[in-house]
Specification:
The chain is α+β, with helices and mostly antiparallel strands. It has one domain. It has a five-stranded antiparallel beta sheet with strand order 4-3-2-1-5.
Length: about 90
């Protein structure tokens, strides 16, 4: 059984009313992974996210607590993987 709330490539919405101000409040994102998945250890509640704007990944941010995230009703893992690939390939140019 998966212990974390969201799998990699899950499409989520970042809450608008975070206690600490963040410029990424109220936007959609793709889950990149938990701290545990990316760096080891036991932290499965904090997530690295890829911020979406107009259907494109525009930024990579971390660490957002699972309580700040809501799974979007529309999910498409293949699309999310392609969006991340496009973002990373763009960075290499």
């Amino acid at each position: 059984m998966l212990r974390q709330k969201f799998r990699m490539f899950t499409l989520v919405h970042i809450a608008k009313d975070l206690v600490d101000f963040s410029p990424d409040c109220g936007v959609d994102a793709i889950v990149g992974g938990t701290y545990s998945q990316l760096y080891g250890g036991n932290d499965i509640k904090n997530y690295q996210l890829y911020i979406l704007k107009n259907g494109k990944v525009v930024n990579l941010v971390a660490w957002y607590d699972e309580e700040c995230l809501t799974k979007l009703p529309w999910q498409n893992k293949d699309w999310a993987e392609e969006a991340l690939e496009d973002y990373h390939m763009k960075e290499e140019k």
